[in-house]
């Protein structure tokens, strides 16, 4: 299904009322209303001023391919995911690697998808669950300049994404696809999960092929691993395709791993 885009212009947005402002204006959305965590470090009049000034256009996209084009402004900061779930897949030779992106993520897809000079790969973007995207252009950057706390929070978001990718890489190196899938689901629960009476619900209807491309395995192998996890009661696939995790979270380094890390020299060498 193709994307449906509903653009909103952002130019010339002003307001003299700071309290009781609508979330949606004729010029876009008030970004701090859509993503209040961005303003966690702001208080009082500065918060009200930032809320009034930081407005961005929004596009909405249905599930399916996301045919992203280059930004119209070279100074554009990036796009902020307001809600929904995106999948970014890197296709290299006969391998596909996937990353999930959701509410709060700041991405610059036209930058990271530029072809490398030595390595060859393609990038494919897919909307897994309907998304709304706020386009943070040069106008937003100028309006945000008096509020460096917001810039720092956006940088924290980028660092958080890097940490999630590092954890996903570690998960893909675990021995046993069962362990990888189980660990990945707990990793996703850290961000998207919610506690239920009988476990932790991960409200993502992930196809087996996406799980496979996140743990570095083939889809049939992942399907078999999921069947084993379901059979032993560790994981439940709910009727709507989402997941229920039972038991305790995983991932704590073993004593052997901790001992090996402690033996590493500053140069990276390991004592035998």
Describe this structure in words.
This protein has 272 residues and is an alpha+beta fold. The protein has two domains: 24-169, Sandwich (Jelly Rolls), CATH 2.60.120; 175-245, Winged helix-like DNA-binding domain superfamily/Winged helix DNA-binding domain (Arc Repressor Mutant, subunit A, Orthogonal Bundle). 35% of the residues lie in helices and 24% in strands. It contains nine helices and 13 strands. The chain has helices at 31-34, 44-53, 109-112, 138-144, 148-172, 177-192, 208-215, 219-231, 255-262; strands at residues 24-25, 28-30, 55-56, 58-61, 64-65, 78-92, 95-102, 106-107, 122-136, 194-196, 199-202, 235-237, 243-245. The strands form three sheets. Strands 4, 5, 6, 7, 8 and 9 form a six-stranded antiparallel beta sheet that branches. Strands 10-11-13-12 form a four-stranded antiparallel beta sheet. A hairpin with a 2-residue loop joins strand 6 and strand 7 (95-102). Helix 6 crosses helix 8. The longest helix has 25 residues, at 148-172. 29% of the residues are buried.
CATH top level assignment of the largest domain: Mainly Beta
Secondary-structure content class = alpha+beta
- What is the CATH architecture descriptor of the largest domain? Sandwich
Shape by Cα distribution: globular
Helix content: 25-40%
List the domain count as a whole number: 2
Number of strand elements: 13
Which percent range describes the beta-strand content?
15-25%
Count of discrete alpha- or pi-helical segments spanning 4 or more residues: 9
Major sheet characteristics: 6 strands, antiparallel
User: What do the pLDDT scores average to?
Assistant: 83
Segments where pLDDT lies below 50 for 5+ residues?
1-19
Any idea of the CATH topology of the largest domain? Jelly Rolls
* Radius of gyration, taken over Cα atoms and rounded to an integer in Å: 21 Å
List SSEs in N-to-C order.
EEHHEEEEEEHEHHHEEHHEEH
